[in-house]
Amino acid sequence: MLQQKNAEIDVSQFEDKLLYISSKCNKENALNTQIKQNDMNEQLKNLNTFEFNEANIEEKPKDKQIVTLQAKTCRYIPLRSGIKQSLFEDYQYRQIDENTELKKKGDLQIDQLGFKEIYKYQLFDQQLDNQIHNFNWKSNNLFHYDIKKQKKQLNSSLLLTYNNLMELQESLQNDSNYKQHHRKININPIKVLDAPQLQDDFYLNLIDWSSQNILSVALQSSVYLWSAINNKVTKFCDFRNTDIVCSLTWAPQGNQLAIGTESGSIQIYDQQKMKRISILQGHTSRVGSLAWAGQTLCSGSKDKSIQLYDLRQQKIIGKLEGHKQEVCGLKWSPDEYQFASGGNDNKLLVWRLGSQVPIIKFNQHQAAVKAIAWSPHKHGLLCSGGGTADRAIRFFNTSTTEQLDWIDTGSQVCNLLFSKTINEFISTHGYSMNQIICWKYPTLEKVSTLIGHTSRVLFLAMSPDGETIVTGAGDETLRFWNIFPKKEESQLSQTLLIPSKIR
């Protein structure tokens, strides 16, 4: 079966390797190596004289196994007795000249020298040089950072500035005002409600939040109430196919709801009795905006007029004509002494209760003015936002009739609302970004940008405690956001004569 009977092995191949090893070994190991070599030569000579007998292998299969085992034991095994010493000699030959290669500035030379000596210590058990006796390993972490050592290397002036900044940071972290202005706002809504058939119309105002913590939402011809106390939804009224709801607003006490319709009528409902108590006529077209102050209700219509109603006498006490197109925004000032109106004619007008002509006219906007807000923190501060062609928020002083500031938001401004607790305000936007932005005033810095709606954010209302806002959009959803902090109890005026809550 086997064609080759004799196995001839060239000893010179092994002799070269043995000579290579012996050349690198020192004199102590040379004698041991020669003895090993002589033994190896004798074994190889015996192996060459061994003959394979085919007949014996066929008749005695066990001999084949024995021959195989003997062949395997005659393999070359390298000598390792002098490896450590040979590495030391090789390291000495490749040693870097310190005078030529390590002439560098700074700590780099010391670091290279130190690691070289540590390498020698690990390999050859040699003592470390005196230059690195002070090299101190403080931990086994490779990226250990010693801040004390770093601070010692700093300039004295820089170190003083660093210490001052650390003291300032500690003092600011204990400051309540600092915590307010550096708070974290949750960018996700805390609650989402479906609002099917919520109209996607820029000129309407279809949600409002009462002082009794009840949210009213107009869906086509119906009005629904959602209680923030028990999370209950109630169908409040339904005009069926006779009319469509275009606007609504709560009375300051939160017990009555005014509803403006497509036909031009205004209907007043009692929230406790769940029934209509009066109907106010006067407009010839849809009523898209309403504002309530005390016992006076103000309405703006597509017929370009503004009407004032005295709810105690159930009659019109004033009809104001100053806009040339639809009135789409109305807001009373905090003192309820004057109100502002915005129209599709790009005008912002300020009216005083009892006058028939506007006391101030602002013409800076280049698109419809629906978004209007008065600041509760500064008397006479009025802000307004323009539509798609304008995209700007402008701030006016109604006492001096001058424009204080403005900012280009980059998208349609649909609503504006000031915080009750801190000097910030909210703006909601339409084309083309559909975002909700919280701003600081007067710096006009963005505190946070909230994105969630997939359509124009047309409607905005605030909870009675001033912490939460709700937004409605053309995507037929209502989203609730926790934005503003709680009002400090120390800021509430509580005395024996003045109650803690005024209704």
UniProtKB/TrEMBL annotation:
Q: Where are the WD repeats?
A: 280-319, 320-353, 450-483
Q: Which GO terms describe its biological process?
A: anaphase-promoting complex-dependent catabolic process; positive regulation of anaphase-promoting complex-dependent catabolic process
User: Does the record's keyword annotation contain Ribonucleoprotein?
Assistant: no
Task: Look up the domain of life of the source.
Answer: Eukaryota
One GO cellular component term? anaphase-promoting complex
List UniProt keywords, sorted A-Z: Cell cycle, Repeat, WD repeat
Q: Does the keyword Membrane apply?
A: no
User: Which GO-annotated molecular functions does the record name?
Assistant: anaphase-promoting complex binding; ubiquitin ligase activator activity
Q: Cross-referenced InterPro entries, in alphabetical order?
A: Cdc20/Fizzy, WD40_CDC20-Fz, WD40_repeat_CS, WD40_rpt
Q: What are the CDC20/Fizzy WD40 domain coordinates in residue numbering?
A: 193-481
What is the designated name of this protein?
CDC20/Fizzy WD40 domain-containing protein
Tell me which species this is from.
Paramecium primaurelia
